[in-house]
TrEMBL record:
Protein name, as recorded: DDE-1 domain-containing protein
Source organism per UniProt: Haemaphysalis longicornis
Pfam families: DDE_1
GO molecular function: nucleic acid binding
Residue span, DDE-1 domain: 1-91
Family annotation (InterPro entries): DDE_SF_endonuclease_dom
Species classification: Eukaryota, Metazoa, Ecdysozoa, Arthropoda, Chelicerata
Amino acid sequence: MTRALFTEWLMELDDDMVKKNRKICLLVDNCSDNHVEGSVLRTSSWCFFQPTAPHSFRPPEQGIIRSAKCAYRKCLIEEMLFNLHLKREKTKSTSSWRLKCSPFNGR
């Protein structure tokens, strides 16, 4: 994920939390793309893992990335099967399905 994508996602998440009147704290890996400069979050805060933190504490080592990829693939396959079931012509490209089935959109 690039810094621009992370910033966009973070701002959308913060807007959603404002609408729901919720406050959250994100635990973020300490990589350079996660350091967003100049962003003002209204209801969200974030904490970075220390570079010396054991790898067992970091989310990627706990299977979060694998789980997100599996959820994405499941959504993509369900969408394709649904279209096959309705005998639709392939009017959408798979790239539009990929955008629709983002693991972060709640599906």
